[in-house]
Amino acid sequence: MVKVGVIGCGTIGNAAHLPAYTKNPRAELAYVCDIIPERAQKAAGEYGGKAVTDYREVLADPQVSAVSVCTPNNTHSTITVAALDAGKNVLCEKPAARCYADALVMQEAQRRSAKTLNIGVVNRFNTAVNVIKKLIDTGELGNIYHVYVSFRAHRSIPGLGGAFTTKEIAGGGVLIDWGVHYLDLAMYCLGDPEPKTVSSQAYSVLGRPMEDYSFLGMWAGPPDYSGTYDVEDFVTGLIRTGGPTISLNGAWAQNIGVSDTYIDFLGDKAGVRLVYGQNFKLYTAKGGALFESTPEFAASDMFYDEIDSFLGCVENGGKTPANIDYAIRTSRIMQAIYDSSDAKKEVIL
Ligand SMILES: NC(=O)c1ccc[n+]([C@@H]2O[C@H](COP(=O)([O-])OP(=O)(O)OC[C@H]3O[C@@H](n4cnc5c(N)ncnc54)[C@H](O)[C@@H]3O)[C@@H](O)[C@H]2O)c1
Question: What is the mean pLDDT of the chain?
């Protein structure tokens, strides 16, 4: 049994990590940790483990061999590096860190410790995504020349004025929060090609001034008009890689009343549109006719699989697709998107 600690008992801790460890016969939940004592106690009551408020108590226990880091983005690097240096294996939630420099520090700590560092790029364990990857790898789509990524919503800024909209804490807005999943998924399906150049622009428009922001509902808590809004709510960009080009448009908010959340893989033999978190359609042309098909498959629980594969690394070593060495390319691209936007010119990597 792998003794595990979950650090951060908020939304993703409760929705994914705690239930997945509890269900997994290979894991024993030894600690649940949150700086808010009631959250740690509530998690201990529901899932078991000792409730603590200081993650260093988890790291000091030699029986613990693995931790999940489910805390806000600005704490990922510090807690992950401390955990690796204490000899623990780490599954850190996405994004790896607030910025690429911090993600590199995490990768260095992984190398120093020779323990596993996986990032919560959970779509790499999504069944539909893996079917698409197999279609690409076996040449069913032919030569993929472009991938278009859309993560646009009408009104979906989370917790206006809070942690999500404060650059110091989150590192950015819609790109680092949503775009990380879309970009990482595209990179995974393409075999993580080397990024070459990035040209982009990020805009912080509809969320500021905060009191003028019109919305019907808000996730991640009600607005705090005394708080901070200094992140982007719209981003656009073009990435050249060693393989296909990738273009993206992302919006936490836009004055267009639709949500367009999909990834298009354009190949010369066939194309695929994956609706994020759902199924995909395959489009092709044969014998002078156009075909469109929807696949059927049994989907597994990607969070369970993400954590099960992490436990496999803890027990046997090895690299899964969530390893920092792959996920860090997504961090590098996101950093280049922000850098290109700030510099208002193309960034060469
Ligand atoms: N994989 C996904 O699909 C997914 C979904 C949601 C969130 N996330 C990521 O998970 C992380 C957490 O997001 P969330 O929505 O659960 O946030 P949250 O605010 O709901 O939960 C974070 C928890 O961490 C606790 N915390 C903060 N600092 C701490 C510290 N030093 N030690 C112990 N606990 C601490 C907070 O008190 C809070 O309970 C973020 O990085 C986010 O990007 C990933």
Answer: 97
Å from CA of 287 to ligand 1 middle: 52
* CB distance 127 to 189 below 8 Å: no
Burial (CB count <10 Å: 0-12, 13-18, 19+), residue 259: middle
pTM, 2 dp:
0.97
| Sign for the pseudo-dihedral over CA of 104, 192, 326, 29 | positive
Rounded Cα distance between 181 and 124, Å, is 9
Task: Measure CA 13 to chain center.
Answer: 14
Taking the CA atoms of residue 63, residue 97, residue 326 and residue 312 in that order, the dihedral angle to the nearest 10 degrees is 20
Alpha-helical segments (H) within 48-166? 55-59, 73-85, 100-113, 127-137
In sequence order, the β-bridge partners of residue 271 are: 266, 283
Residue to substitute in 12, 80, 224 for testing ligand 1 pocket (most ligand atoms within 8 angstroms of CB): 12
Length of the chain: 349
Q: Output the pLDDT for position 190.
A: 98
